[in-house]
Amino acid sequence: MSQATKRKHVVKEVMGDYVIPTQQQQIVRVLGTPGNNLHEVETAKGERFLVSMPTKFRKNIWIKRGDFLIVDPIEEGDKVKAEISFILYKDHIRHLIKEGAW
């Protein structure tokens, strides 16, 4: 699969799908990006930790400070405690508020 085709499918998946987080997943806000595809995030309770970006998002989707994410926890992680599973945009947030999951 070419890079352009891969990018098209990843962007379509991120922009088109509306997901609701499961019991294990959390909604977090991005505080910064220290580098190496890691992002510092904060939960609703105020807990701060690092999350990793999966390979499929790298060089295809950009995340900036203030964005909201859905993350899956990683049990064996000390510093990096979760992995990004979904990136929330304004339409996704409106859908979550309407569903009562925000």
Please give a handful of descriptors for the protein shown:
protein biosynthesis; RNA-binding_domain_S1_IF1; five-stranded mixed β-barrel; 102 residues; translation initiation factor activity; NA-bd_OB-fold; RNA-binding
Q: What this model shows, in words?
A:
24% of the residues lie in helices and 34% in strands. The protein is built from two helices and five strands. It is globular. A hairpin with a 5-residue loop joins strand 2 and strand 3 (48-52). It is an alpha+beta fold and 102 residues long. Strands 1-2-3-5-4 form a five-stranded mixed β-barrel.
In brief:
Residues 5-89 form the S1-like domain. The chain is α+β, with helices and mostly antiparallel strands. The chain contains 2 helices and 5 strands, in the order H-E-E-E-E-E-H.
Taken from the alpha-carbon principal axes, the silhouette is: globular
Distance between the termini: 36 Å
Count of distinct strands: 5
Structural class based on helices, strands and sheet pairing: alpha+beta
Strand content: 25-35%
Number of helices: 2
Low-confidence stretches: none
Q: For the largest beta sheet, what order do the strands appear in spatially?
A: 1-2-3-5-4
Q: How do the SSEs run, as a string of H and E?
A: HEEEEEH
Look at the structure and give the mean pLDDT: 86
The percent of residues in helical segments reads: 10-25%
Rg, Cα atoms, Å:
14 Å
Largest β-sheet summary: 5 strands, mixed, barrel
